[in-house]
From TrEMBL:
Residues 128-290 form the NodB homology domain. One of its GO terms (biological process) is carbohydrate metabolic process. PROSITE patterns: NODB. One of its GO terms (molecular function) is hydrolase activity, acting on carbon-nitrogen (but not peptide) bonds. Pfam families: Polysacc_deac_1. InterPro entries: Glyco_hydro/deAcase_b/a-brl (IPR011330), NODB_dom (IPR002509), Polysacch_Deacetylase (IPR051398). It is found in: Secreted. GO terms for cellular component: extracellular region. This is Polysaccharide deacetylase family protein. Coiled coil: none annotated. It comes from the Bacteria. Keywords: Signal.
Length: 290
């Protein structure tokens, strides 16, 4: 009886796998036609392992997440360039050690969607969570950080400047598309990277709305997070960000993020170059509370 079941399973697997393989060989370009189904299955399986189940409408099911009584304070780490030369650039090897520390110490890296649920529902998919963010969308986010993040199976968010796409040392549209398919969310850092607190409400609104429309279109997504350029914002920015359709906005105010700051004024932990691994660890531990 058992033997038959094994044979039956093997036959079923053969039916599922073979068409994909054959197609790949015939086309000579991999399993492009058959792959989406298989990839989706793998994603669902991985998500389940990490405790990220989804309901039938694709919403994250937080039922299995750890619920906390006191308000969660979440470290949102802020990086810019992964290179060397000034106070905004973290050298690759330092970044590599920091990601290794996070992995070895059991940290789970959140997507924007998950971070929103952590902050608003006071639940976490894991006892230890961080949200990794990069401002400005430098090319090295693709050439250096992306590989290290993939090696560690980590998610992150890049806040891209609309006018900088395909320009100079910034990400190209193709790089953004590739990253967004592989765990890196691309969100808005406005169109022109100007200080919002010096603008009229109309100008601020244009920066926020036009960049959302741009990233929604390029990445075929609902862009939900805004990073205020140079951390500058005012009371109007908070309202306009929400009206433009963002669910959250991040600042450069130091420390862990919590809901009581307002979902459009979330604090971040700046990661500067020259930080020891111990220094990195204490920054994160001090910014985490639940
Ligand atoms: Zn910036």
């Amino acid at each position: 009886m058992k033997k038959y079941r094994v044979l039956w399973m093997a036959a079923l697997l053969g039916i599922l796998i073979l068409p994909g393989c054959t197609q790949g060989i015939l086309e000579g370009i991999g399993t492009k036609t058959a792959a989406p189904i298989a990839e989706d299955d793998i994603e669902v399986a991985e998500a389940a392992e990490n405790g990220i189940g989804r309901d039938s409408e694709g919403h994250i099911d937080t039922g299995e997440w750890i619920k906390f009584e006191s308000p969660v304070q979440l470290p949102i780490l802020m990086y810019h360039s992964i290179s060397e030369g000034n106070g905004l650039r973290v050298p690759r090897e330092e970044f590599r050690s920091q990601m290794a520390w996070l992995r070895e110490n059991g940290y789970y890296t959140l997507s924007p969607e998950e971070a929103f649920l952590v902050l608003t529902e006071n639940r976490m998919p894991s006892e230890k969570c961080v949200w990794l963010t990069f401002d400005d969308g430098y090319t090295d986010n693709y050439t250096e950080a992306f590989l290290i993040l993939k090696e560690n199976d980590m998610k992150a968010t890049v806040f891209m400047i609309g006018k900088s796409i395909d320009k100079g040392h910034h990400l190209t549209e193709n790089q953004m598309l590739e990253m967004s398919k592989d765990g890196i969310s691309i969100e808005s850092h406005t169109i022109n990277h100007l200080e919002l607190n010096r603008m009229t409400a109309e100008q601020q609104e244009a920066e926020m709305v036009q960049s959302k429309v741009l990233f929604d279109r390029i990445l075929d997504q609902d862009t939900t997070v805004l990073s205020y350029p140079v951390g500058r914002y005012n009371e109007e920015s908070l309202r306009l960000s929400e009206e433009a359709g963002y669910k959250m906005a991040v600042t450069t105010e130091p420390g862990g993020a919590s809901r009581d700051q307002g979902m459009h004024a979330l604090h971040r932990v700046r990661i500067s170059p020259g930080l020891s691994v111990d220094g990195f660890a204490s920054l994160i531990e001090n910014a985490s509370k639940h």
